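Listing S7. Sequence submitted for prediction.
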Amino acid sequence: MKKVVLSMALIAVLGLSFTSCRETTDKTGEAVDNAANAAEDALEEAGDAVEDAAENLEDAVDNAMEASEDAVEKAQEIANDSIDNAEDNAENAVDAANDN
């Protein structure tokens, strides 16, 4: 009778340990799945951040190009105005010299 009780106790303990191992395995599997999902989400967010940065860089380059073109146009206008003023002043000087 003692052997039967001890055998049953042994079977119960082994049964609990196998059940416990299955639960641990299940929990480990869930943890691995959660970690994989978190890594996937982080990679997607990083990819989105890279895309946003590329778009911002493209916008910045476009804005810089437009500003440079505007500055060149303004410099050309100023140079043309200066040339026109110099021509007018030269004509006025010639006219004044001819009048004297």
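Caption to Listing S7: primary sequence and predicted structure tokens for the chain studied. Residues 21 and 27 are 10 Å apart (CA to CA). The first helix runs from residue 2 to 99.
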